[in-house]
Amino acid sequence: MTRKGRVTLLVLAVVFLLSAGVATAEKDAKSEPYTLSVLTEKIDKLEKKEVTLAGTIVGVCKSGCKMWIADGEYKKGDPFALVRAKDDAFKFDKDATGKEVILYGYAVAKYMDYCSESGEEQEGAMDKCETPVDAKKTKEKEETKEAAAKEKKKEVTFFATKVEYRDKKTTPND
Length: 174
Description:
By secondary structure, the protein is of the alpha+beta class. Helices cover 30% and strands 27% of the residues. It contains four helices and five strands.
């Protein structure tokens, strides 16, 4: 083999190995499940992107068309997410309350419209509401608007494309 052939072969091998590493890193990011609290925190970057979510089922509707999940045991006031089957493609197990679940799909943030007279939740309504700020301080005004927008995120709705039910993890007795 000529020197030129060896160099070409070496370059191709390096390109192949680098591309395999990138594909593996992307796959790991998709396959590693987020907790609800992390997903909610990063919803601006993850909204409408394919993600994996892990949680505990805290309730399922009687028909199995939707369920609610939380991180671990739910206590009043804890964050939770509404989960629906994307395109109503399947029903959830109606007897799954208390089980752990791994969900594959897409998350969408919902917002609370504090300006509406009824206080109804409306998706994307946060842009309609002006936050009261000191008009003299433009920079503070922008920071306040951003903080108010983050506070208005009321909940996350998750559209599942696949569901894996798991029995509740138990800790071994010492």
